[in-house]
Write a structure and sequence with these properties.
Belongs to the kynureninase family. Pathway: Amino-acid degradation; L-kynurenine degradation; L-alanine and anthranilate from L-kynurenine: step 1/1; Cofactor biosynthesis; NAD(+) biosynthesis; quinolinate from L-kynurenine: step 2/3. By secondary structure, the chain is of the alpha/beta class. It has two domains: 8-32 and 306-413, Aspartate Aminotransferase, domain 1 (Alpha-Beta Complex); 53-300, Aspartate Aminotransferase, domain 2, CATH 3.40.640.10. The chain is built from 15 helices and 15 strands. The protein has helices spanning 8-20, 51-67, 71-74, 80-91, 105-119, 134-145, 188-197, 217-220, 247-250, 289-292, 295-300, 307-332, 356-365, 389-405, 411-414, and strands spanning 31-32, 38-39, 48-49, 99-101, 125-129, 151-155, 170-176, 201-205, 224-227, 242-245, 335-336, 348-352, 368-369, 371-373, 377-381. The protein has a seven-stranded mixed β-sheet with strand order 4-10-9-8-7-5-6, with helices on both faces. Strands 11-12-15-14 form a four-stranded antiparallel β-sheet. The protein has a two-stranded antiparallel sheet with strand order 1-3. Strand 7, helix 7 and strand 8 (201-205) form a beta-alpha-beta unit. It is globular and about 70 Å long. It binds pyridoxal-5'-phosphate. Pyridoxal-5'-phosphate binds next to helix 5 and helix 6.
């Protein structure tokens, strides 16, 4: 890795050189980025792919307004869940026929946990991370509440590590590939192997890795996975999520939301549920087609690029940011929580600071958008697809200036808004 030069002129030259030789620089024009903004919240909601404007216009005017009900066939609406699913799957190392784009992450966690239980019916525990994204745990609690005798065991609560909690009672382990708070990356292959050695199944949550970290679901031998399309895949607010089930499990797993889209012959209108033999059994009902129509643009913006090229830049820009802010952090009592070891981090930098909320607000006033997660975590998501090294430098300079100048103390930055 290129050493970072620390005097001001040297840094500026180094940044310019890196942008000039960046093989991904051309991707930035595929996104609409508001003027004057450095956007570091793509781990929460990715920016608009430029192609989505025309796609939405076509979906509204041609497919809906003119095509009407014929568009289920003519515009491929009925098969979008699988055609888009195969493309998302390709970004996650999944061969075709195993991934569906549908529903929300929360709903897909429910289906995946229940599908896992259906494959391990005699087992009585679900294991998850106590620090997981809350909705994953809320859903797991709901699964357990509806299944007398089932128990939910949490890393950090019932045992120090996931490895301490998985045993012959474990049906399913729900694990995040990248931790949404700390940005820490798990070794998918090793964890999957460990879980399988105990006879349990794994559900990987890919919300914070898909699109920025190479994911190898098939190679790792993953059983089930879920993930988000509106974060690093840039597919739009509330765009449908995805769910993966390894081919070997599809004919036997059961998921409880047995709606007509998962039926073997939905248009036979048979009495009695008979699931499709393949991944379509993961579906429930009619999908939000207009929201699905923005996926093509989001996926097309990165799918012609090798994921390892994206990963190399992601590592470089997160490293650059940490290097540029670490002195200011040390001086002002803020702590970089994300691992410096690139093998152990995703594509975000998290900094714990007692006054994190007003710092994030003060940064926003300077055109640098990150976010905040209670109680004290500032999160900065770094997408290699649309951030330049100059953007990263500008963000770090603003961060340092806010800490040094103390402008976060201003009353207008301390008032808490609903979405943080
Ligand atoms: C973003 C995210 C979700 C979001 O769930 P929705 O049902 O789409 O609201 C769930 N889990 C994790 C780990 C996330 O990062």
């Amino acid at each position: 890795m290129t050493p970072v030069i620390t005097n001001a002129v040297g840094v500026a030259l180094d940044i310019a050189r890196r942008d000039e030789s960046d093989p991904l620089a051309r991707l930035k024009q595929r996104f609409h980025l508001p003027a004057g903004m450095v956007y570091l919240a793509g781990n929460s909601l990715g920016p608009t792919p430029v192609a989505a404007f025309a796609d939405m216009e076509a979906a509204m005017r041609r497919e809906w307004a003119e095509g009407l009900v014929r568009s289920w066939n003519d515009a491929g609406w009925f098969t979008l869940a699988e055609s888009l699913g195969d493309r998302v799957g390709a970004l996650a190392g999944a061969a075709a026929g195993q991934t569906m784009v549908c529903d929300s992450v929360s709903v897909n966690v429910y289906k995946a946990l229940q599908a896992g239980r259906s494959l391990r019916p005699k087992r009585t525990t679900i294991v998850a991370e106590g620090g997981s994204f809350p909705t994953d745990l809320y859903v797991a609690e709901g699964v357990v509440a509806g299944a007398p005798g089932m128990e939910l065991l949490l890393e950090g609560v019932d045992g120090a590590r996931i490895e301490d909690l998985v045993d012959e009672r474990t049906a399913v382990v729900l694990v995040n590939h990248v931790d949404y708070r700390t940005g820490e990356l798990r070794d998918m292959a090793a964890m999957t192997r460990f879980i399988h050695d105990k006879g349990a199944l794994v559900v990987w949550d890919l919300c914070h890795s898909i699109g920025v970290v190479p994911v190898e679901l098939d190679r790792a031998g993953a059983d089930l996975a879920v993930g988000c399309t509106y974060k690093y895949l840039n597919c739009g607010p509330g765009a449908p999520a995805f769910i993966y089930a390894a081919a070997r499990h599809q004919a036997t797993l059961r998921q409880p939301l047995s709606g007509w889209w998962g039926h073997a012959t939905p248009f036979a209108f048979e009495r009695g549920y008979r699931p499709d033999n393949g991944a379509r059994r993961l579906l429930c009902g009619t999908q939000p087609i207009l929201s699905m129509r923005t996926l093509d643009a989001g996926l097309a913006a990165i799918e012609d690029v090798d994921m390892h090229t994206l990963r190399a830049k992601s590592i470089a820009i997160t490293d650059l940011f940490m290097t540029l802010v670490e002195d200011a952090c040390r001086t002002h009592g803020a702590t970089i929580v994300t691992p410096r070891d690139p093998a152990r981090r995703g594509s975000q930098v998290s900094i714990a600071f007692e006054h994190g909320y007003p710092v994030v607000q003060a940064l926003m006033a300077r055109g640098v958008v990150g976010d905040f997660r209670a109680p004290d975590m500032m999160r900065f998501g770094f997408s290699p697809a649309y951030l330049s090294y100059a953007d990263v430098h500008r963000a770090a300079s603003a961060f340092n200036a806010v800490l040094e100048g103390g402008d976060w103390r201003d009353a207008r930055f301390t008032a808490r808004r609903a979405v943080t």
